[in-house]
Write a structure and sequence with these properties.
By secondary structure, the protein is mainly alpha-helical. It has helices at about 25-60, 65-95, 100-115, 125-155, 160-185, 195-220, 235-255, 260-290, 295-320, 325-345, 345-375, 380-395, 400-410, 415-420, 420-430, 435-445; strands at about 5-10, 10-15, 445-450, 455. It has a two-stranded antiparallel ribbon with strand order 1-2. It starts with a strand and ends in an 8-residue tail after the last strand.
Protein backbone atom coordinates (compact mmCIF):
# COMPACT_ATOMS: atom_id res chain seq x y z
CA UNK A 1 0.00 0.00 0.00
CA UNK A 2 1.31 3.44 -0.91
CA UNK A 3 2.22 5.79 1.91
CA UNK A 4 -0.53 8.22 2.81
CA UNK A 5 0.40 11.74 1.74
CA UNK A 6 0.18 14.76 3.98
CA UNK A 7 -0.05 18.35 2.92
CA UNK A 8 2.08 21.41 3.63
CA UNK A 9 0.14 24.26 2.16
CA UNK A 10 -0.31 23.36 -1.48
CA UNK A 11 2.25 20.55 -1.39
CA UNK A 12 1.12 16.95 -0.89
CA UNK A 13 4.08 14.88 0.22
CA UNK A 14 4.27 11.15 1.01
CA UNK A 15 5.64 10.21 4.39
CA UNK A 16 8.11 7.74 2.88
CA UNK A 17 10.54 8.37 0.02
CA UNK A 18 11.63 6.01 -2.71
CA UNK A 19 14.70 4.96 -0.77
CA UNK A 20 12.63 4.06 2.28
CA UNK A 21 13.47 7.24 4.23
CA UNK A 22 10.60 8.04 6.57
CA UNK A 23 9.69 11.71 6.82
CA UNK A 24 8.38 13.07 10.12
CA UNK A 25 5.44 15.36 9.37
CA UNK A 26 5.81 17.62 12.41
CA UNK A 27 9.59 17.76 12.14
CA UNK A 28 9.47 18.88 8.51
CA UNK A 29 6.94 21.55 9.37
CA UNK A 30 9.31 22.70 12.09
CA UNK A 31 12.10 22.86 9.50
CA UNK A 32 9.94 25.10 7.28
CA UNK A 33 9.09 27.39 10.21
CA UNK A 34 12.77 27.91 10.95
CA UNK A 35 13.07 29.79 7.65
CA UNK A 36 10.26 32.04 8.86
CA UNK A 37 12.22 32.49 12.11
CA UNK A 38 15.72 33.38 10.94
CA UNK A 39 14.67 35.52 7.98
CA UNK A 40 13.93 38.21 10.55
CA UNK A 41 17.68 38.64 10.96
CA UNK A 42 18.25 38.97 7.20
CA UNK A 43 15.56 41.62 6.75
CA UNK A 44 15.66 43.70 9.94
CA UNK A 45 19.33 43.37 10.95
CA UNK A 46 21.15 43.09 7.63
CA UNK A 47 18.99 44.87 5.08
CA UNK A 48 16.58 47.38 6.61
CA UNK A 49 16.64 48.72 10.17
CA UNK A 50 20.15 48.10 11.51
CA UNK A 51 22.00 49.80 8.61
CA UNK A 52 19.99 52.99 9.20
CA UNK A 53 20.54 52.80 12.96
CA UNK A 54 24.26 52.19 12.49
CA UNK A 55 24.59 55.28 10.28
CA UNK A 56 22.44 57.64 12.34
CA UNK A 57 22.92 56.47 15.95
CA UNK A 58 25.71 53.97 16.58
CA UNK A 59 28.03 55.73 14.13
CA UNK A 60 26.79 59.25 14.81
CA UNK A 61 30.20 60.47 15.98
CA UNK A 62 32.01 59.28 12.87
CA UNK A 63 33.03 61.85 10.29
CA UNK A 64 32.21 61.82 6.58
CA UNK A 65 31.40 58.39 5.19
CA UNK A 66 33.24 56.48 7.93
CA UNK A 67 30.03 54.87 9.21
CA UNK A 68 29.43 53.29 5.80
CA UNK A 69 33.08 52.23 5.57
CA UNK A 70 32.98 50.60 9.00
CA UNK A 71 29.71 48.88 8.16
CA UNK A 72 31.30 47.43 5.00
CA UNK A 73 34.36 46.31 7.00
CA UNK A 74 32.06 44.64 9.53
CA UNK A 75 30.44 42.61 6.76
CA UNK A 76 33.82 41.51 5.38
CA UNK A 77 35.18 40.49 8.79
CA UNK A 78 32.01 38.54 9.58
CA UNK A 79 32.06 36.61 6.31
CA UNK A 80 35.75 35.82 6.70
CA UNK A 81 34.99 34.30 10.11
CA UNK A 82 32.07 32.35 8.64
CA UNK A 83 34.27 30.99 5.85
CA UNK A 84 36.89 29.79 8.34
CA UNK A 85 34.46 28.49 10.98
CA UNK A 86 32.04 26.62 8.71
CA UNK A 87 34.38 23.67 7.92
CA UNK A 88 35.45 23.47 11.58
CA UNK A 89 31.88 23.54 12.87
CA UNK A 90 30.76 21.10 10.19
CA UNK A 91 33.53 18.68 11.10
CA UNK A 92 32.66 18.92 14.78
CA UNK A 93 29.00 18.28 14.01
CA UNK A 94 29.89 15.21 11.95
CA UNK A 95 32.00 13.85 14.78
CA UNK A 96 29.31 14.46 17.40
CA UNK A 97 26.65 13.13 15.01
CA UNK A 98 24.33 16.01 15.92
CA UNK A 99 23.78 18.82 13.46
CA UNK A 100 20.76 19.96 15.47
CA UNK A 101 22.84 20.76 18.55
CA UNK A 102 25.10 23.00 16.51
CA UNK A 103 22.13 24.67 14.84
CA UNK A 104 20.67 25.38 18.29
CA UNK A 105 24.00 26.81 19.47
CA UNK A 106 24.48 29.12 16.48
CA UNK A 107 20.82 30.16 16.59
CA UNK A 108 21.23 31.20 20.22
CA UNK A 109 24.41 33.09 19.29
CA UNK A 110 22.64 34.99 16.50
CA UNK A 111 19.42 35.65 18.41
CA UNK A 112 21.12 36.84 21.60
CA UNK A 113 23.48 39.07 19.62
CA UNK A 114 20.49 40.62 17.86
CA UNK A 115 18.64 41.29 21.10
CA UNK A 116 21.73 42.73 22.80
CA UNK A 117 21.84 45.32 20.03
CA UNK A 118 19.11 47.05 22.07
CA UNK A 119 21.93 48.29 24.34
CA UNK A 120 23.91 49.90 21.52
CA UNK A 121 23.40 53.62 21.85
CA UNK A 122 24.75 56.79 20.31
CA UNK A 123 28.39 56.47 19.28
CA UNK A 124 28.57 52.74 20.12
CA UNK A 125 29.68 51.73 16.62
CA UNK A 126 32.36 49.29 17.84
CA UNK A 127 29.92 47.52 20.17
CA UNK A 128 27.33 47.39 17.38
CA UNK A 129 29.87 46.03 14.88
CA UNK A 130 31.00 43.35 17.33
CA UNK A 131 27.43 42.19 17.93
CA UNK A 132 26.69 42.24 14.22
CA UNK A 133 29.72 40.05 13.49
CA UNK A 134 28.51 37.54 16.09
CA UNK A 135 24.98 37.71 14.66
CA UNK A 136 26.17 37.06 11.10
CA UNK A 137 28.32 34.15 12.29
CA UNK A 138 25.30 32.66 14.07
CA UNK A 139 23.01 33.23 11.10
CA UNK A 140 25.29 32.09 8.26
CA UNK A 141 27.03 29.20 10.01
CA UNK A 142 23.73 28.02 11.44
CA UNK A 143 22.28 27.89 7.94
CA UNK A 144 24.92 25.30 7.04
CA UNK A 145 23.41 22.87 9.57
CA UNK A 146 19.86 23.91 8.69
CA UNK A 147 20.43 22.97 5.04
CA UNK A 148 22.06 19.70 6.10
CA UNK A 149 18.98 18.72 8.10
CA UNK A 150 16.95 18.85 4.89
CA UNK A 151 19.26 16.25 3.35
CA UNK A 152 19.07 14.08 6.48
CA UNK A 153 15.32 14.20 7.06
CA UNK A 154 13.65 14.56 3.66
CA UNK A 155 13.82 12.07 0.77
CA UNK A 156 15.67 13.42 -2.27
CA UNK A 157 12.64 13.48 -4.57
CA UNK A 158 10.71 15.63 -2.07
CA UNK A 159 13.42 18.11 -1.09
CA UNK A 160 12.60 20.67 -3.76
CA UNK A 161 8.98 20.98 -2.59
CA UNK A 162 9.95 21.27 1.07
CA UNK A 163 12.79 23.67 0.28
CA UNK A 164 10.49 25.86 -1.85
CA UNK A 165 7.99 25.97 1.00
CA UNK A 166 10.71 27.07 3.39
CA UNK A 167 11.85 29.75 0.94
CA UNK A 168 8.30 31.11 0.73
CA UNK A 169 7.94 31.09 4.52
CA UNK A 170 11.22 32.98 4.77
CA UNK A 171 9.96 35.76 2.51
CA UNK A 172 6.73 35.96 4.49
CA UNK A 173 8.26 35.74 7.97
CA UNK A 174 10.91 38.35 7.30
CA UNK A 175 8.29 40.63 5.77
CA UNK A 176 5.77 40.25 8.60
CA UNK A 177 8.26 41.13 11.35
CA UNK A 178 9.68 43.98 9.27
CA UNK A 179 6.16 45.38 8.90
CA UNK A 180 5.69 45.16 12.69
CA UNK A 181 9.09 46.78 13.24
CA UNK A 182 8.27 49.58 10.83
CA UNK A 183 5.02 50.25 12.70
CA UNK A 184 6.95 50.43 15.98
CA UNK A 185 9.39 52.96 14.53
CA UNK A 186 6.88 55.14 12.68
CA UNK A 187 4.29 55.19 15.48
CA UNK A 188 6.69 55.34 18.41
CA UNK A 189 4.89 58.20 20.15
CA UNK A 190 1.44 56.60 19.87
CA UNK A 191 2.86 53.32 21.18
CA UNK A 192 4.27 55.04 24.26
CA UNK A 193 8.01 54.89 23.56
CA UNK A 194 10.09 57.74 25.02
CA UNK A 195 11.94 58.22 21.72
CA UNK A 196 12.34 56.83 18.23
CA UNK A 197 15.73 55.47 19.27
CA UNK A 198 14.15 53.53 22.15
CA UNK A 199 11.57 52.06 19.76
CA UNK A 200 14.31 51.00 17.36
CA UNK A 201 16.28 49.38 20.15
CA UNK A 202 13.24 47.32 21.10
CA UNK A 203 12.96 46.33 17.43
CA UNK A 204 16.35 44.62 17.73
CA UNK A 205 15.15 42.74 20.79
CA UNK A 206 12.12 41.48 18.84
CA UNK A 207 14.41 39.93 16.22
CA UNK A 208 16.06 37.69 18.78
CA UNK A 209 12.75 36.73 20.38
CA UNK A 210 11.10 36.06 17.00
CA UNK A 211 14.05 33.94 15.85
CA UNK A 212 14.08 31.78 18.99
CA UNK A 213 10.30 31.51 19.28
CA UNK A 214 9.68 30.22 15.77
CA UNK A 215 12.77 28.01 15.87
CA UNK A 216 11.26 26.01 18.74
CA UNK A 217 9.09 23.75 16.51
CA UNK A 218 12.24 22.54 14.74
CA UNK A 219 14.28 22.21 17.93
CA UNK A 220 11.59 20.23 19.77
CA UNK A 221 10.29 18.04 16.94
CA UNK A 222 13.37 17.08 14.93
CA UNK A 223 14.78 13.71 15.93
CA UNK A 224 18.25 12.86 14.67
CA UNK A 225 19.25 9.30 13.94
CA UNK A 226 22.27 7.93 15.71
CA UNK A 227 24.43 6.06 13.19
CA UNK A 228 26.74 3.36 14.46
CA UNK A 229 30.44 4.02 14.89
CA UNK A 230 32.30 4.06 11.61
CA UNK A 231 35.92 3.44 10.89
CA UNK A 232 37.66 6.78 11.25
CA UNK A 233 35.17 7.96 13.81
CA UNK A 234 38.14 8.79 16.07
CA UNK A 235 39.29 11.61 13.76
CA UNK A 236 39.73 14.92 15.58
CA UNK A 237 37.80 18.08 14.75
CA UNK A 238 40.91 19.65 13.25
CA UNK A 239 41.59 16.50 11.27
CA UNK A 240 38.05 16.42 9.92
CA UNK A 241 38.21 20.13 9.10
CA UNK A 242 41.53 19.55 7.35
CA UNK A 243 39.87 16.84 5.29
CA UNK A 244 37.14 19.35 4.35
CA UNK A 245 39.72 21.82 3.12
CA UNK A 246 41.50 18.95 1.37
CA UNK A 247 38.32 18.17 -0.56
CA UNK A 248 38.10 21.86 -1.41
CA UNK A 249 41.61 21.71 -2.88
CA UNK A 250 40.74 18.51 -4.75
CA UNK A 251 37.72 20.19 -6.26
CA UNK A 252 39.86 23.15 -7.34
CA UNK A 253 42.39 20.87 -9.02
CA UNK A 254 39.71 18.91 -10.85
CA UNK A 255 38.18 22.09 -12.31
CA UNK A 256 40.55 21.80 -15.28
CA UNK A 257 38.44 18.85 -16.45
CA UNK A 258 35.37 21.09 -16.57
CA UNK A 259 36.35 24.34 -18.34
CA UNK A 260 32.74 25.49 -18.76
CA UNK A 261 32.07 24.92 -15.07
CA UNK A 262 35.21 26.89 -14.25
CA UNK A 263 34.06 29.83 -16.38
CA UNK A 264 30.62 29.76 -14.79
CA UNK A 265 32.00 29.63 -11.25
CA UNK A 266 34.22 32.63 -11.99
CA UNK A 267 31.15 34.49 -13.29
CA UNK A 268 29.13 33.41 -10.25
CA UNK A 269 31.74 34.60 -7.76
CA UNK A 270 31.63 38.07 -9.30
CA UNK A 271 27.91 38.61 -9.83
CA UNK A 272 26.88 36.86 -6.61
CA UNK A 273 29.24 39.10 -4.66
CA UNK A 274 27.71 42.10 -6.41
CA UNK A 275 24.20 41.01 -5.43
CA UNK A 276 25.23 40.35 -1.82
CA UNK A 277 26.91 43.75 -1.60
CA UNK A 278 23.81 45.52 -2.89
CA UNK A 279 21.71 43.74 -0.26
CA UNK A 280 23.90 44.65 2.72
CA UNK A 281 25.07 48.13 1.61
CA UNK A 282 22.03 49.69 -0.09
CA UNK A 283 20.25 50.94 3.03
CA UNK A 284 23.26 52.42 4.80
CA UNK A 285 24.28 54.05 1.51
CA UNK A 286 20.83 55.62 1.22
CA UNK A 287 21.04 56.85 4.80
CA UNK A 288 24.49 58.32 4.13
CA UNK A 289 23.30 60.43 1.19
CA UNK A 290 20.35 61.80 3.15
CA UNK A 291 17.37 59.59 2.26
CA UNK A 292 14.75 59.64 5.04
CA UNK A 293 15.31 56.68 7.36
CA UNK A 294 11.62 55.74 7.56
CA UNK A 295 11.41 55.69 3.76
CA UNK A 296 14.47 53.45 3.59
CA UNK A 297 12.86 50.81 5.80
CA UNK A 298 9.52 51.08 4.01
CA UNK A 299 11.27 50.63 0.67
CA UNK A 300 12.92 47.43 1.92
CA UNK A 301 9.48 46.19 2.96
CA UNK A 302 8.40 46.83 -0.64
CA UNK A 303 11.32 44.72 -1.84
CA UNK A 304 10.33 41.90 0.50
CA UNK A 305 6.72 41.68 -0.64
CA UNK A 306 7.56 42.25 -4.31
CA UNK A 307 10.06 39.42 -4.18
CA UNK A 308 7.71 36.45 -3.74
CA UNK A 309 5.34 37.01 -6.71
CA UNK A 310 8.21 38.32 -8.82
CA UNK A 311 10.21 35.15 -8.19
CA UNK A 312 7.27 32.99 -9.26
CA UNK A 313 6.85 35.07 -12.44
CA UNK A 314 10.57 34.92 -13.06
CA UNK A 315 10.38 31.13 -12.94
CA UNK A 316 7.72 31.11 -15.66
CA UNK A 317 9.82 33.39 -17.83
CA UNK A 318 12.80 31.07 -17.37
CA UNK A 319 10.69 28.23 -18.75
CA UNK A 320 9.97 30.33 -21.82
CA UNK A 321 13.22 32.20 -22.46
CA UNK A 322 15.84 30.06 -20.72
CA UNK A 323 17.77 30.43 -17.46
CA UNK A 324 20.93 31.93 -19.00
CA UNK A 325 19.04 34.65 -20.83
CA UNK A 326 16.95 35.55 -17.79
CA UNK A 327 19.97 35.53 -15.47
CA UNK A 328 21.86 37.77 -17.91
CA UNK A 329 18.90 40.14 -18.03
CA UNK A 330 18.70 40.28 -14.24
CA UNK A 331 22.41 41.16 -14.02
CA UNK A 332 21.83 44.06 -16.42
CA UNK A 333 19.00 45.20 -14.16
CA UNK A 334 21.34 45.07 -11.17
CA UNK A 335 23.94 47.03 -13.13
CA UNK A 336 21.30 49.64 -13.87
CA UNK A 337 20.33 49.73 -10.18
CA UNK A 338 23.92 50.46 -9.12
CA UNK A 339 24.44 53.13 -11.79
CA UNK A 340 21.11 54.79 -10.99
CA UNK A 341 21.98 54.56 -7.31
CA UNK A 342 24.99 56.77 -7.98
CA UNK A 343 22.65 59.54 -9.17
CA UNK A 344 19.93 58.91 -6.54
CA UNK A 345 18.82 62.01 -4.63
CA UNK A 346 15.34 61.33 -3.22
CA UNK A 347 13.17 58.75 -1.45
CA UNK A 348 11.20 58.25 -4.66
CA UNK A 349 14.38 57.12 -6.38
CA UNK A 350 15.13 54.67 -3.58
CA UNK A 351 11.61 53.23 -3.75
CA UNK A 352 12.00 52.68 -7.50
CA UNK A 353 15.34 50.94 -7.05
CA UNK A 354 13.97 48.81 -4.18
CA UNK A 355 11.14 47.69 -6.44
CA UNK A 356 13.63 46.74 -9.18
CA UNK A 357 15.66 44.71 -6.68
CA UNK A 358 12.50 42.86 -5.64
CA UNK A 359 11.79 42.00 -9.26
CA UNK A 360 15.09 40.20 -9.85
CA UNK A 361 16.55 39.19 -6.49
CA UNK A 362 14.89 35.80 -5.94
CA UNK A 363 14.73 34.86 -9.62
CA UNK A 364 18.38 35.58 -10.28
CA UNK A 365 19.47 33.44 -7.33
CA UNK A 366 17.23 30.55 -8.36
CA UNK A 367 18.42 30.71 -11.99
CA UNK A 368 22.06 30.85 -10.94
CA UNK A 369 21.65 27.71 -8.84
CA UNK A 370 19.81 25.77 -11.54
CA UNK A 371 22.45 26.66 -14.14
CA UNK A 372 25.19 25.50 -11.81
CA UNK A 373 23.38 22.19 -11.30
CA UNK A 374 23.58 21.55 -15.07
CA UNK A 375 27.37 21.80 -15.06
CA UNK A 376 28.38 19.59 -12.11
CA UNK A 377 28.97 15.82 -12.33
CA UNK A 378 25.77 14.24 -11.06
CA UNK A 379 27.54 11.68 -8.86
CA UNK A 380 29.48 14.47 -7.12
CA UNK A 381 26.78 17.13 -6.93
CA UNK A 382 26.96 17.31 -3.13
CA UNK A 383 30.70 17.91 -3.22
CA UNK A 384 30.39 20.61 -5.88
CA UNK A 385 27.53 22.42 -4.19
CA UNK A 386 29.51 22.34 -0.97
CA UNK A 387 32.49 23.74 -2.84
CA UNK A 388 30.34 26.55 -4.25
CA UNK A 389 28.95 27.39 -0.81
CA UNK A 390 32.36 27.52 0.87
CA UNK A 391 34.14 29.35 -1.95
CA UNK A 392 31.32 31.89 -2.11
CA UNK A 393 31.76 32.65 1.58
CA UNK A 394 35.37 33.61 0.90
CA UNK A 395 34.64 35.66 -2.22
CA UNK A 396 31.73 37.47 -0.54
CA UNK A 397 34.34 39.36 1.48
CA UNK A 398 35.42 41.28 -1.63
CA UNK A 399 32.30 43.35 -2.39
CA UNK A 400 32.05 45.17 0.94
CA UNK A 401 35.86 45.44 0.98
CA UNK A 402 35.93 47.15 -2.43
CA UNK A 403 33.12 49.44 -1.26
CA UNK A 404 35.13 50.29 1.86
CA UNK A 405 38.41 50.90 0.04
CA UNK A 406 36.79 53.02 -2.67
CA UNK A 407 34.91 55.09 -0.11
CA UNK A 408 38.07 55.60 1.94
CA UNK A 409 40.23 56.61 -1.02
CA UNK A 410 37.68 58.94 -2.61
CA UNK A 411 35.82 60.13 0.47
CA UNK A 412 32.61 59.57 -1.51
CA UNK A 413 29.94 56.95 -0.82
CA UNK A 414 28.60 57.55 -4.33
CA UNK A 415 31.91 56.45 -5.83
CA UNK A 416 31.85 53.47 -3.46
CA UNK A 417 28.43 52.26 -4.64
CA UNK A 418 29.45 52.78 -8.27
CA UNK A 419 32.49 50.52 -7.72
CA UNK A 420 30.08 47.60 -7.17
CA UNK A 421 29.13 47.88 -10.86
CA UNK A 422 32.43 46.20 -11.73
CA UNK A 423 31.21 42.93 -10.18
CA UNK A 424 28.15 42.88 -12.44
CA UNK A 425 30.07 43.89 -15.58
CA UNK A 426 32.70 41.18 -15.08
CA UNK A 427 30.14 38.58 -14.01
CA UNK A 428 27.92 39.33 -17.01
CA UNK A 429 30.84 39.16 -19.43
CA UNK A 430 32.09 35.84 -18.06
CA UNK A 431 28.57 34.40 -18.12
CA UNK A 432 28.31 35.04 -21.85
CA UNK A 433 31.41 32.90 -22.40
CA UNK A 434 29.83 29.80 -20.85
CA UNK A 435 28.52 27.15 -23.23
CA UNK A 436 26.03 25.29 -21.06
CA UNK A 437 25.40 22.54 -23.59
CA UNK A 438 29.10 21.75 -23.78
CA UNK A 439 29.39 22.06 -20.01
CA UNK A 440 26.60 19.52 -19.48
CA UNK A 441 28.40 17.13 -21.82
CA UNK A 442 31.67 17.62 -19.90
CA UNK A 443 29.88 16.90 -16.62
CA UNK A 444 28.50 13.66 -18.05
CA UNK A 445 31.90 12.36 -19.20
CA UNK A 446 33.43 9.47 -17.29
CA UNK A 447 37.01 10.39 -16.46
CA UNK A 448 39.40 7.76 -14.98
CA UNK A 449 40.53 8.65 -11.49
CA UNK A 450 44.28 8.98 -11.07
CA UNK A 451 45.80 5.92 -9.53
CA UNK A 452 42.69 3.84 -9.94
CA UNK A 453 41.48 1.35 -12.44
CA UNK A 454 37.97 2.67 -11.98
CA UNK A 455 36.31 5.52 -13.79
CA UNK A 456 34.08 8.05 -12.12
CA UNK A 457 32.21 11.00 -13.44
CA UNK A 458 34.71 13.78 -13.14
CA UNK A 459 37.05 11.61 -11.04
CA UNK A 460 37.18 11.46 -7.25
CA UNK A 461 34.79 9.94 -4.81
CA UNK A 462 31.10 10.58 -4.46
CA UNK A 463 30.09 12.98 -1.75
CA UNK A 464 26.35 13.31 -1.95
CA UNK A 465 24.41 16.16 -0.42
Amino acid sequence: MAAKPYTMGKFALPRTGKGGMTMDKKAVRGWVWYDWANSAFATTMLAAVMPVYYESVAGSGLEGNLAQTYWANTQSIAMLLVAVLSPLAGAAADLSRSKLRFLVAFTILGAVSSSLMAFAGEGDWLFASSLLVLGIVGFSTGNTFYDALLRDGVPEEQRHAVSARGYAYGYAGGGVLLAINLLMILQWEQLGFPSKTAATQLVFATVGVWWLLFALPLFTRWKESRPSEEKGGSMSVLGAAGASFGRLGQSLRSLRRYPELLKYMAAFWFFNDGISTVIVMATIYGAGIGINSDDLILALLLTQFTGLPATLLFGRMVARYGAKRMLSGSLLVYLGIVVLGYFMTSSVHFFALAFLVGLVQGGSQASARSLYARLVPIDRSGEWFGFLALSSKFTSILGPLVFSITGTLTGSSRAAILSVAAFFVIGFALLQLVNFQRGAEQAALVVPEAGSGKGTSGGGGSLHA
